[in-house]
């Protein structure tokens, strides 16, 4: 299991990311070229098969062991009226996840993922990012390690999701810091706020940046100041997955925002990631573009909790089923292209 010893250990891991296996990609590409279809006719499903082959070092990659990890945290900034829901909903939804009644329970079941729910000190919200750093150094490190701990040794695919009332506010702040622009470029309606609350939320993002930006010198410090526990946990899980060369499906806006500070330090962090979908949250399309990721799905979803990733995991399974089970031209005695 991966564990980051301290902030330097986290930053060192981010600076020395392993790459994929070009030999496995070549072998998988040769197999794709031999299958009974015009070259490229399975479109992105072919790319997915090669992507999975490269990270798993397998000519025949698998999606049998899928780990879905949902992290939950509370946010001091929720007291500013930036969400359509009260902060108490975070713990209530965790209870719903635990009793099997949430969307992610149904969707993780449908894609065959093994779901773990990780509540992170829900009784202790982060500090209001408009007034202070969200977390202490110890809290941030603990959250990163809670994320790293969910990646099993034998894992074919990981997806990380979140639950945290008000977390689209720190997510917007992380995007603004990583990629610039204006607060309104990154601030959306989250759970469904009105115009007045949107103005308050945009101002909160602006104030948080004014307070912290000059101190955000690396990914750890940025997550600590502008993030939240579940956000840092997703970042820790995604970095740990990379260290173990486990491919990752990113979920929605908050999940993408969690790696924005990592991408600022090392843009290669996205190489083992596929963007599951483009959320309806304003800012997600721009975020994916900045991360250099082309989302697999556009379903108008904006739920979070790993729901988009769970749907996209079915595409991964389809891509790998075609890759593994189709006949070759030679086996099926089908003539190749002229
Ligand atoms: O995944 C997304 O793109 C997404 C977009 C908007 C909202 N959410 C979810 O809604 C919550 C955050 O919204 P808010 O309005 O409370 O900041 C949090 O629990 C997220 O999982 C998620
Ligand atoms: C009900 C509810 C469910 C969620 N799941 C993820 N974020 C959420 C936010 C709310 C408000």
UniProtKB/TrEMBL annotation:
Which EC number(s) does the record attach to this protein?
2.4.2.21
Q: Record's SUPFAM superfamilies?
A: Nicotinate mononucleotide:5,6-dimethylbenzimidazole phosphoribosyltransferase (CobT)
Q: What is this protein called?
A: Nicotinate-nucleotide--dimethylbenzimidazole phosphoribosyltransferase
Q: Which InterPro entries match?
A: Nict_dMeBzImd_PRibTrfase, Nict_dMeBzImd_PRibTrfase_bact, Nict_dMeBzImd_PRibTrfase_N, Nict_dMeBzImd_PRibTrfase_sf
Q: What does this protein do?
A: Catalyzes the synthesis of alpha-ribazole-5'-phosphate from nicotinate mononucleotide (NAMN) and 5,6-dimethylbenzimidazole (DMB).
Which EC class is the enzyme in?
A: transferase
Q: What is the lineage of its organism?
A: Bacteria, Pseudomonadati, Pseudomonadota, Alphaproteobacteria, Sphingomonadales
Recorded source organism is Sphingobium agri
Catalyses: 5,6-dimethylbenzimidazole + nicotinate beta-D-ribonucleotide = alpha-ribazole 5'-phosphate + nicotinate + H(+)
């Amino acid at each position: 299991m991966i564990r980051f010893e301290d902030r330097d250990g986290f930053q060192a891991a981010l600076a020395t990311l392993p790459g994929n296996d070009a030999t496995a990609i070549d072998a998988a590409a040769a197999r794709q070229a031999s299958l009974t279809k015009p070259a490229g006719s399975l479109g992105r499903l072919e790319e997915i098969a090669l992507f999975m082959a490269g990270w798993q070092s397998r000519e025949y990659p698998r999606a049998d062991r899928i780990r879905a990890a949902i992290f939950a945290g509370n946010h001091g900034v929720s007291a500013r009226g930036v969400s359509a829901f009260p902060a108490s909903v975070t713990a209530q939804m965790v209870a719903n996840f635990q009793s099997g009644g949430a969307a992610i329970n149904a969707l993780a079941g449908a894609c065959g993922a093994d779901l773990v729910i990780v509540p992170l000190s829900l009784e202790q919200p982060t500090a209001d990012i408009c007034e202070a750093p969200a977390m202490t150094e110890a809290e941030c490190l603990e959250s990163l390690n809670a994320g790293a701990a969910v990646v099993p040794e034998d894992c074919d695919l990981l997806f990380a999701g979140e639950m945290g009332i008000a977390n689209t506010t720190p997510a917007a702040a992380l995007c603004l810091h990583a990629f610039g622009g204006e607060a309104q470029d990154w601030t959306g309606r989250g759970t469904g706020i009105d115009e007045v609350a949107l103005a308050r939320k945009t101002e909160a993002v602006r104030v948080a940046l004014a307070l912290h930006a000059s101190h955000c010198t690396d990914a750890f410090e940025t997550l600590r100041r502008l993030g939240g526990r579940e956000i840092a946990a997703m970042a820790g899980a995604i970095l740990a997955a990379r260290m173990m060369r486990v491919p990752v499906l990113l979920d929605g806006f908050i999940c993408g925002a969690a790696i924005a500070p990592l991408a600022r330090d090392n843009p290669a962090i996205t190489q083992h990631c596929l963007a599951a979908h483009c959320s309806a949250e304003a800012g997600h399309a721009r975020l994916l573009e900045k991360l250099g990721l082309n989302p697999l799905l556009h379903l108008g979803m904006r739920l979070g909790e790993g729901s988009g990733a769970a749907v996209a995991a079915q595409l991964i399974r389809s891509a790998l089923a075609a890759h593994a089970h189709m006949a070759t031209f030679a086996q099926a005695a089908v003539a190749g292209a002229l």
